Amino acid sequence: MGRRRFLSLSIIIAFTLTFSSLLYAKRFPWTDYEHIKYGFPLFWLVRVLSTIAGPVDLYIVNYSYFIIDLVFWFIVALAVMWLLRRSVSVKTKQ
Fold it and tell me: Which of 13, 45, 56, 75 has its CA at 20 to 30 Å from residue 21's CA atom?
């Protein structure tokens, strides 16, 4: 596998894992600010359900957390692919 294909596949995996991290949600039912946070390992999307002024349906994206999350999953994807590539090359040499 070439270096360019290796990196592009890692980027695709990182984007897939970042967006699939939206399946992880944590609800915060505070009395004056009820909201749900999405993302893993960092919460980069917040859905506000109610505030002290009343009910609201608002989505807030934290772009810096999104980029950090994307970089995290990119590094994880690179490490896993490198380990798999290394284990396959060791098995073929034997």
Answer: 56
> Is 33 inside any structural domain?
yes
Residue 84 has which token pair? 């798999």
Alpha helix positions (H), the chain: 3-20, 63-93
**Domain contains 94:** no
What is the residue range of 41's domain? 3-85
Query: Which pairing describes strands 25-29 and 34-38: parallel, antiparallel, or unpaired?
Result: antiparallel
Q: What does the pLDDT average to over 60-68?
A: 96
What is the distance, to the nearest Å, from the Cα of residue 78 to the centroid of all Cα atoms in its chain? 15
Q: What is the DSSP letter of 47?
A: E
- Which residues touch 74 (CB under 8 Å, ≥6 apart)? 10, 11, 13, 14
CB of 22 closer than 8 Å to CB of 41: no
pLDDT band at 62 (very low <50, low <70, confident <90, very high): very high
